[in-house]
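FAQ: What does a multi-protein file look like?

Like this. Sequence, then C-alpha cells, then the next protein.
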Amino acid sequence: MDKKNYSREEYNEIVHKRPKKIGRKIFKSTGSRIVVNGEDKLCDSQVLFVSNHQGNFDIFALLGFLKKPFGFISKIEVKKIPIARTWMEKMDCLFLDRKDRRQSLKTFKRGIELLKEGHSLLIFPEGTRARSDELLEFKSGSLSLAKKANVPIQPVMVNGTYNIMEANNNRIRKGKVYLTVCDPIMPEEYENLSLDELADETKKRIQEAMDQTTA
C-alpha cells in the first residue's frame, strides 16, 4: 500500500480497520463489557491522545473502541514481536528506547512531524501500568509533542482493564471497562502553561472522569 496514493486521513482510516477489529476481538474474547462516553468531544483535527495506563488490555480497548485512528508510542522491546511490529509500523506507531537518549530524541522529532502531518498519536505519561484504579505520576516531557506540533491534547480515561488481568495474578477474567473521552485542551489553553502544569491539568481531567465511574 503506497501512502502517496492517499491523503493522510484516507490512509489512517484504511490501515486502522484491521487493528481495530483485532483490538475488539481480543477484548471481547475475555467476556468483558465496555462503556464508551464522550465521543462527541473528539476533535475533528489530529490530536495527542493522553491516557492513563492500568493494564495490558488498555491498548485493546483503545484500539478497538476509540473512533479516531491513531498510532502510539511503545517501548522498543515490542518491536521484537514480528506481527505486532508490522502492523504498528503501518499505523505509524513509534518505538522508544529509554536507554538511548539519541534514539529517544529522534523518536520525539518524528512524533512531532507525524502530528503536523495530520496523524494522531497516543501516549501513556505514567510510563508503566498502575495495575489499579490509582493514577500514577504523569511525566510531563512527552506532552511537549503537542506543544511543539501545536495540536490539541485529548485526555482519555480508561478504568477497569486491570480487573481483566493484573488484579488476578495475570489470569484473565471478564470485567467491566469504562472508556471516557475528556474535553480537549486546545493550544490556546495551554500555550502559557509549563509542561508540569499541563501534565497536572491533563491528569485532573482524567481523574474527574474516573471519579464518575465504578469499575
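And here is the next protein:
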Amino acid sequence: MKIFLTNNDFHEVGFVGPKFTWCNNKKGVDRILERLDRCFLNPVAISSKNWFFVRHLAQVASDHCPILLNFTVQQASKKILRFEDVWASNKASMAVLEKVWRRNYKGNALKILNRKMKKSLKALYFWGKAKMQNLLSLKKELLFQIVELQLK
C-alpha cells in the first residue's frame, strides 16, 4: 500500500473524531480496534484553494465508522493595515493626512472620527505603496550592511 501511495503521490488527510474506524464488535480482551478507513488526496487537490479535513463519525449500524470529507473554500482575507513608522518620518505624509481630514463626513462625532481614522490609514497605505515602496528594501539593505560592518 505504501508503494502505491508513494508512486501516485497520494497524501493522507488529517482527521477529527475517534482514532479508530473499525471494531470487530467483541467485548473485553477479544475486542480489536483499528484505523482501517482513510482518505487520501493527490497534489492537485492539496494545492487547490480548499481546506480539507476528515471527520470520523460515530459507529452506528456497521463495524466501521463512517468518514466524512469536509472541505471549505478559503476566502481571501482582508489585509490588516497597520501604521508604518516610516510614514511619520516623511513630511509628505502630512499632506495626505490633511487631505483626508479636510473632507466632511456625516454622522455622530465618534463615527466621523472612526471614518477619518480608517480613511487616513488607507490613504497612507496607498500613498506609501506608490511613493515609498523602495524605502523598505533600502532599509533592509542598509541593516544588512550595518551587520556586515559590525562583523568585520
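Q: Is there any per-entry metadata?
A: Some entries carry free-text notes. For the entry above: The CA atoms of residues 9 and 43 lie 7 Å apart.
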